[in-house]
Amino acid sequence: MSNITQMAYSMIASAGDAQALQFKALEDAKKADFGAAEKILGEADELLLKAHELQTNLIKDEANGVKNELSVLLIHAQGYVNNAILNKKLIEQMIDIYRELRT
To answer: What is the pTM of this model?
Structure first.
């Protein structure tokens, strides 16, 4: 398995796990368990950071002239990371709304 393929799988796994935790946090917020939601969001952030760092390293490599193999898997991994970043922003806003509705 190539290094790029391994990085893509790592990006997918980390971003996918982050998204699952983000939605778990949203479920906790719906139940007004904001402490649990914040804790889980922190765990999701750690995973998302890992995925984002892998993505950033690929971008830095390309900027430095390193040509990486382009594959559907890598494109899929990029989509996963980008979706997890967007979900993070949306879910944080939704949790804020739940919090405001409860106070």
So the answer is: 0.90
Q: What is the pLDDT of residue 39?
A: 98
76 is a catalytic site residue? yes
The whole-number average pLDDT for the span 82-90 is 97
Burial of 2-29, coded b for 16+ CB within 10 Å and e otherwise, reads eebeebbeebbebbbbbbebbebbbebb
List CB contacts of 21: < 8 A, sequence separation 6 or more: 40, 41, 43, 44, 47
> CATH 1.20.58.80: does it fit domain 3-102?
yes
Contact 2, 58 (CB under 8 A): no
Asked if 97 contacts 32 with a C-beta cutoff of 8 angstroms, the reply is no
Choose, from 76, 79, 90, 97, the residue flagged as catalytic: 76
For 39-84, write each residue's pLDDT tens digit.
999 999 999 999 999 999 999 999 999 888 889 999 999 999 999 9
